Amino acid sequence: MLGLICVDVDGTLVGTGNVVREDVWAALADARSRGVRIALCSGRPAFGNALAYARRLDPGGWHIFQNGASIVNVGRGASLSEPLPVEPLEELLTRAHATGRLLEVYTDNEYGVTCPGDLARRHAELLGVPFVPRDPETLIGTRVRAQWVVPLAESAAVQAEPHPGLDLHPAGSPVMPDTMFISVTRAGIGKGSAVARVAAEYGVPLERTMMVGDGHNDVTAMREVGHPVAMGNADAEARAAARYHVGHVDDGGLADAVRLALTL
């Protein structure tokens, strides 16, 4: 039996209906009852639906948000988060205003948007928070992540632009299949670095850790652990990085991964 299971949200825990299957919740609860730690490992921020998922998975545990930039103990409110460098963030904001693209900027517990249009509104609904647009420059607290939210057709061009001192983590959601979410973190920060920190906090060796995911932004974590699992709906990169493959998110593939973890 493994000691730690890290679980992506969109395309892994949550399917096309933006809900979690009850058999998936039951499998995760069974693993927790046997002493396995469960950590959310998401590109989403630590509020709204993602925070509710984390609290249900392990209300006193460490969870990974914002592609590894935000690591929060949801019981104690403690944070191991990594700030964005100031000058690169200012350059991103300047570019967003010049191009009219939507850039979101996040702290551990709030965010602002540069372009409060339809994409921003739809994303707020996906996150499970009220759509109350806020200027990123007015945020209080450490800014840990930015995110381009763009139509799929613009994704390649945005990723090709220079982002010095930063890492990009593109990901999609089955709930908004026409949109690409390109997270931007400090260079060297990602789900892989965050999973290593959480495993260390729990004293669980990485070779006894599982990461379940479906997308490009899950690959660094999948490469870090001893037991990487790709969902049936995973993209080519995630499939190539996996040691095991399970069913589609809408068919409860995550429950298969959790049951596998109990046999290893």
Amino-to-carboxy terminus distance: 5 Å
The chain-level mean pLDDT equals 95
Radius of gyration: 17 Å
How would the global form be characterised? globular
What's the arrangement of strands in the largest beta sheet? 2-1-10-11-12
Largest sheet: 5 strands, parallel
Number of strands: 12
Low-pLDDT segments, ≥5 res: none
How much helix, percentage-wise, in residues? 25-40%
Number of helices: 9
Class by SSE composition: alpha/beta
Q: List the helices and strands in order.
A: EHEHEEHEEHEHEEHEHEHEH
The fraction of residues in strands falls at: 15-25%
Please give a structural write-up.
The chain is of the alpha/beta class. The protein contains nine helices and twelve strands. The strands form three sheets. A five-stranded parallel sheet has the order 2-1-10-11-12, with helices on both faces. A five-stranded antiparallel sheet has the order 6-5-7-9-8. α1 (22-33) packs parallel to α9. The mean pLDDT is 95.
Key features of this structure:
single chain; alpha/beta; five-stranded antiparallel sheet; 21% strand
Layout of secondary structure:
Elements: E1 4-7, H1 22-33, E2 37-40, H2 48-57, E3 62-65, E4 70-73, H3 86-99, E5 102-106, E6 111-113, H4 118-127, E7 145-151, H5 152-160, E8 166-171, E9 179-186, H6 191-202, E10 209-213, H7 219-224, E11 227-230, H8 236-241, E12 244-245, H9 253-261
Parallel strand pairs: 1-2, 1-10, 10-11, 11-12
Antiparallel strand pairs: 3-4, 5-6, 5-7, 7-9, 8-9
Helix pairs in contact: 1-9
